[in-house]
Design brief:
It comes from Dyella marensis. It holds the Pfam family DUF2239. This is DUF2239 domain-containing protein. With 121 residues, this protein is mainly alpha-helical. It folds into 2 domains: 42 residues, no CATH class; 65 residues. The protein is built from 6 helices and 2 strands. A two-stranded antiparallel ribbon has the order 1-2. Helix 3 packs antiparallel against helix 4, helix 3 runs antiparallel to helix 6 and helix 4 packs antiparallel against helix 5. The chain is elongated, with a radius of gyration of 20 Å.
Length: 121
């Protein structure tokens, strides 16, 4: 495992010349093995993520927003850490148990955000 003082080896690659992208050697090896080339593969990966056809990025962003709301509104409440674990484990019944004693307005907002996260996928 690399230490903070010795980061993993990275290599500059011609496909990333305009912005100086740095990837690990194993990433460049995988990109170089793609039949359409490293640059075209990176462009396709970025476009696929940008379109987010299956909603996985929108769902992750909605869950993260829900977490930040939970942290800001109820970070000092009982069961906060367990609720956060349940949120990221997609264990919504457990999450609802954990937040049952929280103020109504906080719970209502979390429920609305969960509906957004579920609808994003």
């Amino acid at each position: 495992m690399p230490s903070p003082t010795h980061p993993p080896e990275t290599t500059h690659h011609p496909a990333a010349s305009s912005r100086g992208i740095r990837l690990l050697d194993r990433h460049w090896a995988w990109l170089d093995a793609q039949p359409i080339g490293a640059g075209a593969t990176l462009r396709r990966l970025v476009e696929r993520a940008r379109r987010d056809i299956d909603g996985c990025y929108r769902k992750a962003a909605a869950k993260e927003a829900c977490y930040f709301h939970m942290r800001d509104a109820a970070g000092d409440r009982p069961q906060f850490e367990e609720a956060a674990r349940a949120l990221f484990a997609d264990d919504y019944p457990r999450l609802r148990q954990c937040i049952a004693a929280w103020p109504d307005d906080v719970r209502t907002r979390i429920e609305a955000m969960l509906a957004t996260a579920d609808g994003a996928a």
